[in-house]
Amino acid sequence: MIRTATPDDVPVIHALIRELAEYERALEEARATEEQLHAALFGPDAVAHALIAEEPAKPAADGADDGSSEGEGAGAGAGTVVGFALWFRNFSTWTGTPGLYLEDLYVRPQARGGGHGKALLAALAAVCVERGYERFEWAVLDWNEKALGVYRSIGARPQDEWTVQRLSGPALAELAALAHAR
Question: Which of 14, 71, 102, 164 has its Cα between 20 and 30 A from that of 91?
Answer without folding.
Answer: 14
